[in-house]
Design goal:
With 420 residues, the protein is of the alpha+beta class. The chain is built from 13 helices and 23 strands. Bound molecules: uridine-diphosphate-2(N-acetylglucosaminyl) butyric acid (EPU). The site of uridine-diphosphate-2(N-acetylglucosaminyl) butyric acid has 25 residues, from helix 1, helix 4, helix 5 and helix 11.
Length: 420
């Protein structure tokens, strides 16, 4: 038996939706919290299975995790112990790599299995490891475990060949207790990095420059507990904005930071999507006559790779050919096979696609091959004629907080069912 999502398409969405806290910030903030000597309260935590997996890992190493109210968690590392991380949850999510930086920073030693996550083509962590080495650590990979340790971590200059989100955050976490100053050059500038740096600074760290391409970390001895509220999820917001453009009469997406979504909103304007942008919300009205666009994913503030697949679904409804290039993950096109089975006309070559619109979509049995492919298929299901049945929805549950519940409130005909 498998749980699937079923969507009967063509009902127009209408109403308001509130965006949850950022998944990609949360999955870094939770490991970062173990650098404190006392309890850290984080609020705005999304209800997603990646948080469950991280909580399991925290408990494995003796960290107390208390779920308060709906979206608060208290992480208390007072009785934590540095044992090897080999629980199956390590390989369930990519973000388990943040335990490398956090545990190395705290104990100067970490032993853990290979991190997992969505398959989007090769996802190396060489830059994370090079960063740890620059701080004086040795890295060994033996019998399926990374063993990373240092006598002493010493601040250094680290230049990232690629501005990697994960490497930037991981090196920042390893460096907070290092002796002296660490400078990360060509750092990634994603809003999630600013969020992690502000949590660490509230704990007592001395980090400057997060959000720019040069981050300076002056090592400190102790970090204490604090309270932190997570930024809204710009990718969940983007997903609902695209859904609204595809299938809404009128929808207001609340609790957003529009500046985090500029690259998406400007592309949608280019497509002639009808929208009103306010300080913390955006209202979208569906339009039958969308224009095609050319799209290239880039590191922030460029167009987010995580929104490339959801937007591809909308491009099937634009009148004319759109060209999509993913420079971050050239293999992130598995959604196109599924969309084609629903009636889309898309040519995929390595790292790019041409989406030929406008095509009608028809309900099908499809598979969410990864998290954002899942979101792309939900959007397709909303547009399609008939019933779409989405399999492997655990990918969706890893990163979207109550996606089907929120859609139901907007009027979608969406259900979960157990099937053989
Ligand atoms: N890269 C390397 N070596 C490294 C690290 C990265 O070559 O050591 C390459 C990657 O292969 C990729 C590029 O650098 O081509 C950028 O990767 P990055 O490290 O920035 O990605 P990440 O930190 O592993 C995060 C998000 C992803 C999101 C990317 C890009 C988390 C947990 N994940 O991954 O989110 O796509 O940044 O913005 O924060 C998702 O939410 O669906 C998702 C996959």
């Amino acid at each position: 038996m498998e749980e699937v999502i079923k969507i009967v398409g063509k009902t127009k969405l209408c109403g308001e939706v509130k965006i949850s806290g950022s998944k990609n910030a949360t999955v870094a903030l939770i490991p970062a919290a173990i650098l404190a000597s006392g309890p850290v309260t984080i609020c705005g935590v999304p209800n997603i299975s990646d948080v469950e997996s991280l909580s399991i890992l925290l408990r494995e190493i003796g960290v107390e995790v208390i779920k308060k109210a709906d979206d608060h968690i208290i992480i208390d590392p007072t009785n934590m112990k540095n044992i090897p991380l080999d629980h199956p949850s390590v390989s369930k999510l990519r973000a388990s790599y943040y335990f490398m930086g956090a545990l190395l920073g705290k104990y100067k030693e970490v032993k853990m299995k290979m991190p997992g996550g969505c398959y989007l083509g090769p996802r190396p962590i060489d830059l994370h490891l090079k960063g740890f080495e620059a701080l004086g650590a040795t890295v060994e990979y033996e019998k399926g475990y990374y063993v990373i340790k240092a006598e002493e971590l010493i601040g250094n200059k680290v230049f990232l060949d690629i501005s990697s989100v994960g490497a930037t955050i991981n090196i920042m976490m390893a460096a907070v207790h290092a002796t002296g100053r660490t400078i990360i050059e060509n750092a990634a500038k994603e809003p999630e990095i600013i969020d992690v740096s502000s949590l660490l600074n509230k704990m007592g760290a001395k980090i400057r420059g997060a959000g720019t391409n040069i981050i300076t970390i002056d090592g400190v001895k102790d970090l204490g507990g604090c309270f932190h509220e997570i930024i809204p999820d710009r990718i969940e917001a983007g997903t609902f904005i695209i859904m609204a453009a595809a299938a809404a009469k009128e929808m207001t997406i609340k609790n957003i930071i529009p500046q985090h979504l500029e690259s998406l909103l400007s592309k949608l304007q280019e497509m002639d999507v009808d929208m009103d942008i306010d300080v913390d919300c955006v209202t979208i009205r569906g339009n039958e006559n969308l224009k095609p666009i050319d799209l290239k994913t880039l590191p922030y503030p460029g167009f987010a790779t995580d929104l490339q697949q959801p937007l591809t679904t909308l491009l099937t409804q634009a009148i004319g050919d759109s060209k999509v290039i993913d420079t971050i993950y050239p293999e992130r096109f598995k959604n196109c096979n599924e969309l084609q089975r629903m009636g889309a006309d898309i040519d995929v070559t390595q790292g790019s696609s041409v989406v030929k619109g406008k095509t009608d979509l028809y309900g099908q049995r499809v598979t969410a091959t990864d998290l954002r492919c899942g979101a792309a298929l939900v959007i397709a299901g909303l547009i399609a004629e008939g019933t779409t049945e989405i399999h492997e929805i655990y990918h969706i549950d890893r990163g979207y907080d109550d996606l089907d519940g929120k859609l139901k409130k907007l009027g979608a005909n969406i259900t979960r069912e157990m099937v053989d």
